[in-house]
Write a structure and sequence with these properties.
The chain is α/β, with parallel strands linked by helices. The chain has two domains: 108 residues, Urease, subunit C, domain 1 (Roll), CATH 2.30.40; 285 residues, Metal-dependent hydrolases (TIM Barrel, Alpha-Beta Barrel), CATH 3.20.20. 36% of the residues lie in helices and 21% in strands. The strands form two sheets. Strands 1, 2, 3, 4, 5, 14, 15 and 16 form an eight-stranded mixed beta sheet that branches. Strands 6-7-8-9-10-11-12-13 form an eight-stranded parallel beta sheet. Strand 2 and strand 3 form a beta hairpin. Helix 5 crosses helix 6, helix 7 packs parallel to helix 8 and helix 13 crosses helix 14. The protein is globular and about 70 Å long.
Length: 408
């Protein structure tokens, strides 16, 4: 057994412990350890505290030079980084004033990505995931949720999910797969059987047998699946032991009600949510996930994050990194900008990309720096943590650690 490793000292170390999962947070609640250190062994945290008090003859030391701030590794709880092709044309069309329908008629939209993803080989999809994961890692994101949903057939959804699993065996990041076979109704579906029934009966059992995903997502929207249509789909998913998450209230309401009805882990998007939906989510165990990257990409309103927190809801912040509506894929930049528009405290922003985001994936072993947690943390070369959101993602990590090992 290797000797424990003590990393530090950090000018400021933020364990993100002692904070509630739900509700508003003030910066005065944020615990700061000055001249802090992290003691790790075999990929796990043994202890967090003052560096000099953790030193002993029984540990090795990794000295951190200069003034540095340390936070838990960031968690991106909603991405679509498994895809083929690009949608740069869609972005240009949107900014030129074309509508969603006009773009779709011109060959754009989700179906464009479906077509390009189907053309890609599994190895090509793996290469794309690894490239995008590496970008996330350099920006301090150590855990990344990754959805399927651009296959929209048994064969192609399996190709995507197998690519995600293969990439997870290679990348230093932790990838959390989600089956989004119910992303939209396939344009080329010409079978007598109902698409969702086929997914339930043919795809779900393979997900279990190959351990490809334990999470099922659906886009509940007028352009995709209605609350009524998706009910039996989610019911069967729950019966089979899948966690539920929902693309909810992006353009019209209804999805958040579905999420609460099925005790979903999270309801994501929520840009169209009204007071009714905000109250509904606040009284539930479902975590509200804001996706500011989609608001930036589409030029639409942000998730009402301030109201969600003030009403007592739990708020996660994710990048929605995808080729269509959220191509930026920079979690910290997006979270910082959301904080500006929604007047979120630094603690609320940081909680939204650490332990609250981990909770949106049902992960209790990360998002905080405490004994027993994964030794995932990110370091910034500054003496004041406020500089991190102040620079809106342009202050890049000086070090990123995953499972107690420096990877960047």
């Amino acid at each position: 057994m290797n000797r424990p490793l003590l990393i530090g000292p950090f000018t400021q170390l933020f364990p993100m412990t002692g904070l509630p999962l739900k509700g508003a947070l003030k910066d005065e609640q944020l615990s700061i350890i000055k001249n802090g250190g992290i003691l790790v062994s075999e990929g796990k945290i043994l202890e967090v505290g003052i560096f000099d008090e953790l030193k002993s003859d029984d540990v090795d030391i990794h000295h951190v030079e200069g003034q540095q701030v340390c936070l838990p590794g960031f968690v991106d709880s909603h991405t679509h980084i498994c895809f083929g092709g690009t949608r740069a044309r869609d972005y240009a069309y949107r900014n030129a004033g074309k509508t969603y329908l006009e773009i779709a008629k011109a060959g754009g939209g989700i179906w464009d990505t479906v077509t390009q993803t189907r053309k890609a080989s599994q190895d090509e999809l793996v290469a794309g995931i690894l490239s995008r994961s590496q970008k996330h890692l350099k920006n301090g994101v150590t855990t990344i949720e990754v959805k399927s949903g651009y296959g929209l057939s048994i064969k192609e959804e399996l190709k995507m999910l197998r690519a995600i699993k293969q990439a997870n065996e290679t990348t230093n990041a932790s990838l959390v797969p989600t089956c989004l076979a119910a992303h939209m109704k396939p344009k080329d579906w010409n079978h007598d059987k109902d698409y969702l029934d086929v997914i339930i009966n043919e795809l779900f059992p393979i997900l279990k047998s190959e351990n490809l995903a334990n999470r099922v997502d659906a886009f509940v929207e007028e352009s995709a699946f209605s609350p009524k249509e998706i009910k039996s789909y989610f019911q069967k998913a729950k019966e089979m032991g899948f966690d539920i998450t929902v693309h909810a209230d992006q353009f019209t309401t209804g999805g958040s009600q579905v999420a609460v009805d099925f005790d979903a882990v999270s309801a994501d998007h929520l840009e169209a949510s009204t007071e009714k939906e905000i109250q509904l989510l606040a009284k539930s165990n479902t975590i509200a996930t804001a996706l500011p990257g989609a608001s930036l990409g589409l030029g639409c309103a942000y998730t009402p994050a301030r109201k969600i927190l003030d009403t007592g809801g739990a708020l996660s912040i994710a990048s929605d990194h995808n080729p269509g509506s959220a191509p930026m894929g920079d979690l910290l930049t997006q979270a910082s900008i959301l904080g500006t528009f929604e007047k979120l405290s630094n603690t609320e922003v940081l909680a939204g990309i650490t332990f609250r985001a981990a909770a949106a994936l049902r992960l209790s072993d990360r998002g905080k720096l405490e004994a027993g947690a994964q030794a995932d943390f990110v370091v910034f070369a500054t003496e004041n943590y406020q500089e991190i959101t102040y620079h809106q993602g342009q202050l890049k990590p000086s070090e990123v650690w995953k499972n107690g090992t420096p990877i960047h």
